[in-house]
Amino acid sequence: MYHKVAQFRFYEELNDFLRHSQKKTSFPYQFNGNPSIKDAIEAVGVPHTEVDLILVNGISVGFDYHLLHGDRVSVYPVFESLNISPVVRLRKKPLRKTTFVLDVHLGRLCRLLRMLGFDTLYRNDYKDAEIVSISVKEKRIILTRDRGLLKTGAVTHGYWIRSTKPEEQIREVFNRFDLFTQTEPFHRCMLCNGTIDRVNKKTILYRLSAGTASYHDEFYNCLNCGQIYWKGSHFNKMKAYVHDLTGQRLPTNFPSDAFTTCGNRKRPVRER
Length: 272
Description:
It is a single chain. By secondary structure, the protein is an alpha/beta fold. It folds into three domains: 74 residues, Ubiquitin-like (UB roll); 78 residues; 86 residues, no CATH class. Helix content is 24%, strand content 18%. The chain has eight helices and twelve strands. The strands form three sheets. It has a five-stranded mixed beta sheet, with no helix packed on it. α2 links the parallel β6 and β7. The protein starts with a strand and ends in a 26-residue tail after the last helix. The C terminus is likely disordered.
């Protein structure tokens, strides 16, 4: 039997985690003792990584605050694109360089993020503990379809992907983290996350088919896995996709360190 009660209200997309009766309204949370507010929030179903501002009776508090009978709690989602540091005490400082590590369900999203220039780690055999360890050590944002992963205590930055469609997922991530001004399209290898650089055609001629060698003169090479890229038939479609997503109109001629579309590699992929 519970002897204490606090009133909770969750805002915006945090309602995605709640029961229908709890969405967009205040509701009672019953408890005994004085649990931490972090434990209470996760008991309701919201991963702590989705939260960036908690007000208790109008005062900003951290995850270590302990609930008292009669508290009125307002919980707000992550404001990655806004500077609200004067009132937020949940993190010492926001992430400045946006890098990601993805769970095993998000392979196609990974390729899209890399195409747009974001440092994105992914393997289809990552264990949850590996993802958490990488996130903590390298300060990467976890993107996942698994809510439970984001409830791990060590995780500080993460986001639960709502959609199951890659085209919607990439828009979801861009809107959530306000990535529109951070893109560097066609600068990363979509296979291994390595960086791309211009390569002399003569040095890779032996790796090209006769048709490719005769039609193209401009080639790029992944410095990590050796994948070769050139401006093939899909290049204009990829440029149009980037423009549609970001509003960034790409020039006809790219700088020498940009990469193009597709190719072949000379050694096994080693993600970096």
